[in-house]
Amino acid sequence: QVHLVESGGGLVQAGDSLRLTCAASGRSVSRHSMGWFRRAPGKQREFLGAINWSAGSEYYGDSVKGRFAIFGDKDKSTVYLQMNSLEPEDTAVYYCAANPGLLHIESQYIYWGQGTQVTVSS
Known about the structure:
Blueprint: E1 3-7, E2 10-13, E3 18-25, E4 33-39, E5 46-51, E6 58-60, E7 68-73, E8 78-83, E9 92-99, E10 111-112, E11 116-121
Parallel strand pairs: 2-11
Antiparallel strand pairs: 1-3, 3-8, 4-5, 4-9, 5-6, 7-8, 9-10, 9-11
């Protein structure tokens, strides 16, 4: 069982950077891959990317490669989503999630945080 809490969202300007934080707790956290997702108004949920705690595997969706990055601090049980060159199209609720299986398979993410709102103005 994993409990996740996102933070760090807010209002930023186009071109700005923002780092989101996901605090994870639970004795099995280290056995889960950690992913980031977002849901924009009127759109389907988008799988942004994921890592495992050992940093031996990673995945990024094509739309954010080179612009977003995911980092983890195992000692703090915390995962970060670093977002650069933000655009209004990035406006969404951002979620972190935990996956006991393969990090690139979206359907295997079974633990979810409540989300944090990111709004990018032009």
